[in-house]
């Protein structure tokens, strides 16, 4: 696993950086962390678990992204980081 990123810092998006780590560590910056921080971290963790990734350090800067956007950005960063093509049959 190498360090990789996905997303932007535009409104309605999330910037995700994934790199090697022991266990799953998620650092989140978000203006709505008080209301939705737990949910955002759950979506990130569930997405990585579905991709078979249990050891990673994730740094995310949320700008009001919906769950579907969070999943898409985490998936893109994870694919870039691991080299595993999740879209291939």
Tally of contiguous helical segments: 2
CATH architecture label name: 2-Layer Sandwich
Helix/strand-derived category reads alpha+beta
- What is the radius of gyration computed over CA atoms, rounded to a whole number of angstroms? 12 Å
What is the share of helical residues? 25-40%
First and last CA, distance:
22 Å
Instruction: List low-pLDDT spans.
Output: none
- The helix/strand order is EEEHEH
CATH fold annotation: Ribosomal Protein S5, domain 2
Shape: globular
What does this structure look like?
The protein is an alpha+beta fold and 89 residues long. It has a single domain (4-82), classed as Ribosomal Protein S5, domain 2. 38% of the residues lie in helices and 26% in strands. The chain contains two helices and four strands, in the order βββαβα. Strands 1-2-4-3 form a four-stranded mixed beta sheet, with helices on one face. Strand 1 and strand 2 (14-19) form a beta hairpin. Helix 1 (33-50) packs across helix 2. The chain is globular, with a radius of gyration of 12 Å. The relative contact order is 0.30.
Write a compact overview of the structure shown.
This protein is of the alpha+beta class and 89 residues long. The chain contains two helices and four strands. The chain has a single domain (4-82), classed as Ribosomal Protein S5, domain 2 (2-Layer Sandwich), CATH 3.30.230.10.
């Amino acid at each position: 696993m190498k360090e990789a990123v996905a997303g932007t810092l535009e409104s309605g998006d999330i910037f995700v950086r994934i790199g090697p780590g022991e266990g799953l560590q998620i650092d989140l910056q978000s203006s709505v962390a008080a209301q939705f921080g737990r949910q955002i971290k759950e979506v990130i963790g569930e997405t990585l678990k579905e991709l078979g990734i249990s050891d990673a350090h994730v740094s995310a800067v949320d700008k009001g992204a919906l769950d579907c956007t969070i999943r898409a950005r985490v998936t893109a960063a994870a694919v870039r980081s691991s080299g595993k093509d999740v879209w291939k049959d």
